[in-house]
UniProtKB/TrEMBL annotation, chain A:
It comes from Desulfofundulus salinus. GO terms for biological process: cellular respiration. One of its GO terms (molecular function) is thiamine pyrophosphate binding. SUPFAM superfamilies: Thiamin diphosphate-binding fold (THDP-binding). Keywords: Oxidoreductase. This is 2-oxoacid:ferredoxin oxidoreductase subunit beta. It comes from the Bacteria.
Automatic annotation (TrEMBL), chain B:
Pfam families: PFOR_II (PF17147), POR_N (PF01855). SUPFAM superfamilies: Thiamin diphosphate-binding fold (THDP-binding), TK C-terminal domain-like. This is 2-oxoacid:acceptor oxidoreductase subunit alpha. InterPro entries: 2-oxoacid_oxidoreductase, PFOR_II, Pyrv_Fd/Flavodoxin_OxRdtase_N, THDP-binding, Transketo_C/PFOR_II. Residues 278-372 form the Pyruvate:ferredoxin oxidoreductase core domain. GO terms for molecular function: oxidoreductase activity. CDD domains: TPP_PYR_PFOR_IOR-alpha_like (cd07034). Keywords: Oxidoreductase. It comes from Desulfofundulus salinus. The keyword RNA-binding does not apply. Residues 19-246 form the Pyruvate flavodoxin/ferredoxin oxidoreductase pyrimidine binding domain. The keyword Amino-acid biosynthesis does not apply.
Length: 273, 386
């Protein structure tokens, strides 16, 4: 399995920049295993990322990789996919990247239902800039810019994606790495905008300040707080209060953008004749 | 190219940009509507699909610039169009395109500013923003048409220069040219020179995406063509890998400049009118150059040796050409619809060897020929009495 993953990595780029205990490597490896499982041609596979710790993942991958500007990864990816729909495009973003500065692009990519697979590394914090609160920092938690506790409510990425029109929405944690891989595979196979939220640990920027322990302890926290969709069905809202529901959360049917544009081309060419 | 319409017809400036861009091979447009550039988006939406191209109206100006870069990287010639406030929003990603060397064209049909200003009034206030809008040091190419036919020709040239030098090129228009209607004779498709980006001639394993050729420009592989490489806005080595090495950083930025500044003769075009024996020269660009030409004609009729110098490329600034003028004329008048943005560059080039004065307007109205003529007469009188 390791050799499988390794063959898609730019090994000369290691060691990576991530801190000890960071979960980003687990998400990266789930993505590579998923691409292997999907059997995608590496020459036709594109990985686009934004800015932040997670977005450095693109540089470690031996595909067509594009590390863009903060929050704009989905907009760059939209240009690539629309220009050449035959390419398989994955978009890696952090939680602040995707839902704060990139929030507008996120809802519109979902609304268009353009065939991109977005993976959001949710570590509840701005990691690279040193631990400022993000739209995914839970209320009351501490951050460098929320020294007395965060008073903002957080987004539910899955609900946001679904409400905006995404046709595949799923969530897993880095503790559930195999599930994460399977959800990425299913998301990529969905012809439309797919969102996979990966709950990952940032022990240095988030965990330390909120007394959550080291990387291993944060992984165990994920294990204890995650419940599958099936388990959640039998639980009361009170029981679900501090839980993270994992698994496939939503599947919808809607026309895909690039396919619809091909019809526009056919219509315009017909008119010209 | 047979799909490109070839005939003489009445055309609007914004329409001419669309037709020129299509003739140059543009097949992707992403934009966000803003006056007075909107017709470019509307016409692209109509024309592109019939040519197998793609149009998308993005959620904002930032996204439009990002999508254009993505499409270009995937191998499709791409263009966006905007006006003042939208141009401000695009800046970060224009800087990205400069750093990552992605060919693309940005049309800015200038409007009065700052801020929302007078949305449909002509101005030339974005001269410096076109040069220095984004953070850091990087070169740009900026072209300024003075007629509808020239808007057509410069749209082609903008696309060609961006492909040749792998650089974002800005077509800096003003509202007058954008909305003016003139008869345009389009060249036949075979007469249009179309430049394609240089492709790698090596095997994928030997490809260094940022190793320049003799001209300073690295060959560019498109995503999906079998060359897998990394593109980033970070300082990167010849492989495209991020680095903070001070030497790599400096040599990268210097090369980005060299690839343009080593080819100034190719990049810069200027136009002269009655310059041979001119003693008083008016420097003007865009719509103002038309008022200036009439003023020069009238001055000549009144026996004044006036001439017009029109930079078509305003960035890089035609320093050599202006310096040469300074050595043989008595006075330079710079007429522009701002407080003197290009005048500063003219002064820099003439280095005090000749007097430079400005004719400026800031009220959203075009500078008229008689304003420029009065300025010409005034400096003539001054020179005679002095």
């Amino acid at each position: 399995m390791l050799s499988q993953v390794e063959s898609h990595l730019r090994s000369d780029r290691f060691p990576h920049i991530w801190c000890p205990g960071c979960g980003n490597g687990i998400v990266l490896s789930a993505l590579v295993r998923a691409i292997e499982e999907l059997g995608y041609d590496p020459d036709k596979t594109v990985v686009v990322s934004g800015i932040g710790c997670s977005s450095r993942a693109a540089g470690y991958l031996d595909f067509n990789t594009l590390h863009t500007t903060h929050g704009r990864a989905l907009a760059f990816a939209t240009g690539i996919k629309l220009a050449r729909p035959e390419l398989d495009v994955f978009v890696l973003m952090g939680d602040g990247d995707a839902t704060a500065i990139g929030g507008n692009h996120f809802i519109h990519a979902a609304r268009r239902n353009i065939d991109l697979t977005a993976i959001i590394f949710n570590n509840s914090i701005y990691g690279m800039t040193g631990g400022q609160y993000s739209p995914l920092t839970p209320p009351d938690k501490r951050a460098t810019t929320a020294p007395y506790g965060n008073i903002e409510r957080s987004f539910d990425i899955a609900e946001l994606a679904k409400g905006a029109g995404a046709t595949y929405v799923a969530r897993a944690t880095t503790y559930h790495a195999t599930m994460l891989e399977k959800l990425i595979v299913a998301g990529a196979r969905n012809k439309g905008f797919s969102v996979i939220e990966a709950i990952t640990a940032c022990p240095v920027g988030y965990g330390r300040r909120n007394k959550m322990g080291n990387g291993l302890q944060m992984l165990l926290w994920q294990k204890e707080h995650a419940v599958t969709v099936k388990q959640a069905e039998k639980m009361s809202p009170e029981e679900l209060q501090d839980k993270i529901i994992i698994g496939e959360l939503y599947r919808g049917e809607a026309p895909e953008y690039t396919a619809m544009y091909e019809e526009i081309i056919a219509r315009a060419k017909g008119k010209n004749r | 190219m047979s799909d490109v319409v070839e005939m003489a017809r009445l055309m609007q400036g914004n329409e001419a940009v669309v037709e020129g861009a299509l003739a140059a091979g543009v097949r992707f447009f992403a934009g966000y509507p803003i006056t007075p550039s909107t017709e470019i988006a509307e016409l692209m939406a109509e024309r592109l699909p019939g040519l197998g191209g793609k149009f998308i109206q993005m959620e904002d100006e930032i996204a439009s610039m990002a999508a254009v870069i993505g499409a270009s990287l995937a191998g499709v010639k791409a263009l966006t169009a905007t006006s003042g406030p939208g141009f401000s929003l695009k800046q970060e990603n224009i800087g990205y395109a400069a750093m990552a060397e992605i060919p693309c064209v940005i049309v800015n049909v200038q409007r009065w500013g700052p801020s929302t200003g007078i949305p449909t009034a002509p101005a030339q206030g974005d001269v410096m923003q076109a040069r220095w809008g984004t953070h850091g040091d990087h070169p740009v190419i900026v072209l300024c048409p003075a007629s509808v036919r020239e808007a057509y020709m410069l749209a082609i040239r903008a696309v060609n220069l961006s492909e040749k030098y792998r650089v974002p090129v800005i077509l800096l228009m003003d509202e007058v040219i954008g909305h003016m209607r003139e008869r345009v004779v389009q060249p036949h498709a075979e007469e249009v020179e179309v430049i394609e980006r240089k492709k790698p001639a090596v095997e994928p394993k030997d490809y260094y995406p940022y190793r320049p050729g003799d001209d300073g420009v690295p060959p560019m592989a498109n995503f999906g063509d079998g060359y897998r490489y990394h593109v980033t806005g970070l300082v990167h080595d010849e492989k495209g890998n991020p680095t903070t090495d001070p030497q790599v950083a400096e040599s990268l930025i210097l090369r980005l400049h060299r690839k343009i500044y080593d080819h100034l003769d190719d990049v810069i075009t200027v136009e002269g009118y009655q310059l041979e024996d001119a003693e008083i020269v008016v420097v003007a660009y865009g719509a103002v150059a038309r008022s200036a030409k009439r003023a020069v004609k009238d001055a000549r009729a009144a026996g004044i040796k006036a001439g017009l110098f029109r930079p078509v490329t305003i960035w890089p600034f035609p320093e050599k050409e202006v310096a040469e003028l300074a050595g043989r004329v008595r006075h330079i008048i710079v007429a522009e619809m701002n407080l003197g943005q290009l005048k500063g560059e003219v002064e820099r080039a003439v280095q005090g060897r000749v007097r430079v004065t400005g004719v400026n307007r800031l009220n959203g109205e075009l500078i008229t020929f008689d304003e420029i003529l009065s300025a010409i007469k005034e400096v003539t009188t001054d020179a005679q009495s002095g």
